[in-house]
Specification:
11% of the residues lie in helices and 45% in strands. By secondary structure, the chain is mainly beta.
Length: 214
């Protein structure tokens, strides 16, 4: 018994240091449930497929001058799990777009987080992580349609196109940099592939999404 207690005492610090993980999109398990549709213009196709490169189940998106996304309502405590992890792949980037304008506000992939604020959500904030056409990686700019949304380029141009690219972002820090306030919680996560403003076509793929404490 004493030996068992000593073993458990040694293992306890390791268990307490285990990473906390909250899965938002478990696409690799074939689960796309809980993701609702939001259409802005037409319907972008989102389907579970098996990716030839990775062998995993992923979400394949196809936009033809359309703009609709899938979102999941989920409250994430950013004080505990501020880091968002995801992977995505695009066939090719959009070329010749000015993403700072309404006519160029299209992206082959977006992952964004939503913070609901104010009565009826009138002060809701949305931070969009995007694969930009021309704006460089690390650049941030206001959405040309609404002051309540900001864009942040985490990929840009042709670099990485056709390959899976993984990301890890400190959402709490990014929201503070984007909007100036310290959001302790988000209320939804969304993915979107759109080409409505420029009339473009895009094919893209999304891997699993999850939050963690590290």
């Amino acid at each position: 018994m004493r030996r068992l207690i000593l073993i458990l005492a040694c293992l306890w610090p390791l268990a307490s240091q285990a990473a906390e993980k909250i899965v938002v999109g478990a696409f690799s398990t074939g689960d796309f449930s809980g993701w609702e549709e939001k259409s802005f213009k037409g319907q972008t196709s989102y389907q579970l497929v098996r990716d030839a490169q990775s062998g995993s189940l992923v979400i394949a998106a196809h936009a033809q001058g359309t703009a609709s996304g899938r979102f999941r309502k989920i409250q994430i405590d950013l004080a505990r799990t501020p880091y968002l992890h995801w992977s995505w792949k695009i066939e090719k980037p959009y070329a010749g777009l000015d993403e700072n304008t309404k006519s160029g506000d299209d992206f082959p992939v977006r992952v964004y987080v939503v913070v609901q604020r104010g009565v009826f959500g009138l002060s809701t904030h949305a931070l969009n992580y995007v694969w930009a056409s021309a704006n460089p990686v690390g650049s941030s700019w206001p959405n040309p349609f609404t002051a309540n949304a900001r864009m942040l380029a985490v990929d840009s141009g042709t670099r990485g196109a056709g390959q899976w690219v993984g990301h890890r972002r400190d959402v709490r820090a990014d929201l503070k940099a984007a909007f100036g306030d310290d959001a302790a919680q988000i209320d939804a996560v969304a993915i979107m592939t759109d080409g409505d403003n420029s009339g473009r076509e895009a094919r893209a793929w999304y891997g699993d999404l999850y939050f963690s404490d590290q």
